[in-house]
Design a protein that fits this description.
By secondary structure, the chain is α/β, with parallel strands linked by helices. It is 31% helix and 17% strand. Helix 6 packs parallel to helix 8.
Length: 396
């Protein structure tokens, strides 16, 4: 089989899962839908650098509290280790080869794509996004469905930068803008997306995080971002919205940090850059302190949110609702995860990299195939492709 056939298998598995899911949802008594949705994405954030995922070297009390008050997924997989393509898949619940957003700054999400924000807007929610990186500028199409799309970016010394791929703005400015909008729209149902770029290289956290984490500034950026996530959560409580808001916390991709000889991200598809944190939280709707081991994908977030809001899935959606896992109605969806990076192909004319991850195996399609028994070898150190060609052929 070729990897294109693997994609067909993904779709077949999705259809079979849908049949089982319909049988479950047909018996479910609808819960009261949340009045607000807060979607937080943090750029370049490894799940294994958060306290709630077992990391002890950085303090992330606010993200940890979200996990304590909600349901945390231990094995969530990004579809692309790049900001724009990952968010395009996340906000449309489609694989990159279907939405055609494969790289930063080159591709644009087509107007025909149906986004989560469009679904929310048509359902009566006020919609706003506050993003912090030029690669998510409205010119690349993710503004579809957002009545407010704040994409102002600056350089490292605070001067506005227009059209520069490295342009960003820091968490303090993003949070302040998001809070102004939240307070100005307090009488409406709201869908708010807040994107933080701070953990992205170059790692330069402000004081006191610069001093506290002088030996690991990446962790300092994470701790700084956590502080501002805490401000968002405090504002929800201040506005009496904390009991009626569905909160989703996720990252678009991870960071190499020198593992597998990749200092940052974009080129490879090892778990260092495609395994991400994912948390759902909402009082009375989401179980507290629950940990889900089952593998899920970022494309599953959109259908899950629609399910919580009792909105039908549009036919283009390729992800699965995770609400059955969250509520404990099912133990496993057995979802395979596809990831890809065309960065090396598009920029250097090297071979593209594609991976197919099951609960047991991870196969990386490249000129030199790689196969890892991912449960026993989470760091992907022992390549079994040579000795297990039967598995390679099955997944290829």
């Amino acid at each position: 089989m070729k990897l294109s056939k693997t994609i067909s298998i993904l779709l077949v598995v999705t259809i079979l899962s849908l049949v089982a899911w319909f049988a479950i949802t047909a018996k479910r008594t609808p819960d009261k839908e949340p009045q607000n949705v807060l979607f937080i994405t943090v750029d370049t954030l490894r799940s294994d650098h958060l306290g709630c995922y077992g990391y002890k070297k950085v303090k992330t009390p606010n993200i940890d509290r979200l996990a304590e008050q909600g349901t945390m997924f231990k094995n969530a997989v990004s579809q692309v280790p790049l900001t724009l393509p990952s968010h395009a898949s996340l906000f449309t619940s489609t694989y990159p080869q279907f939405n055609n957003v494969r790289d930063n700054g080159i591709h644009r999400l087509h107007q025909s794509a149906i986004t989560l924000a469009e679904r929310m807007q048509e359902s009566g929610y006020a919609t706003a996004a506050f993003v912090s990186a030029y690669v998510l500028d409205s010119k690349f199409g993710l503004d579809q469905g957002f009545e407010t799309y704040d994409d102002e970016t600056q350089d490292q010394i605070g001067e506005e930068m227009i059209g520069h791929m490295d342009a960003e703005r820091t968490a303090d400015k993003v949070t302040a803008a998001a809070l102004r909008w939240l307070r100005d729209n307090k009488d409406e149902k709201r869908f708010l997306w807040v994107h933080y770029f701070d953990p992205h290289s170059i790692y330069n956290p402000p004081s006191p995080y610069r001093e506290t984490y002088k030996d690991n500034p990446y962790d300092g950026e994470i701790a700084y971002t956590d502080e501002h996530i805490g401000m968002l959560l405090s504002a929800l409580k201040e506005l009496d919205l904390d009991q009626t808001t569905l909160i989703i916390f996720a990252a678009d991709h991870g960071e190499g940090l020198g593992e597998h000889e990749e200092s940052t991200h974009a080129v490879f598809v090892y778990d260092t850059t495609v395994k991400v944190p994912l948390i759902f939280s909402c009082p009375s709707l989401v179980p507290e302190g629950k940990v889900v081991e089952d593998q899920v994908r970022l494309i599953d977030i959109m259908p899950t949110i629609l399910d919580f809001l009792h909105l039908e899935k549009n036919k283009e959606i390729q992800g699965e609702s995770l609400i059955g896992l969250i509520k404990g109605e099912i133990k496993s969806l057995n979802l395979p995860a596809y990831s890809e990076s065309l960065y090396a192909k598009l920029h250097y004319n090297w071979s593209p990299l594609k991976s197919f991850r099951t609960g047991k195996w991870k196969y990386i399609k490249s000129p030199a195939p790689e196969l890892y028994r991912i449960r026993d070898d989470p760091q992907e150190l022992v390549n079994l492709a040579g000795s297990r060609m039967d598995v390679v052929k099955e997944l290829d």
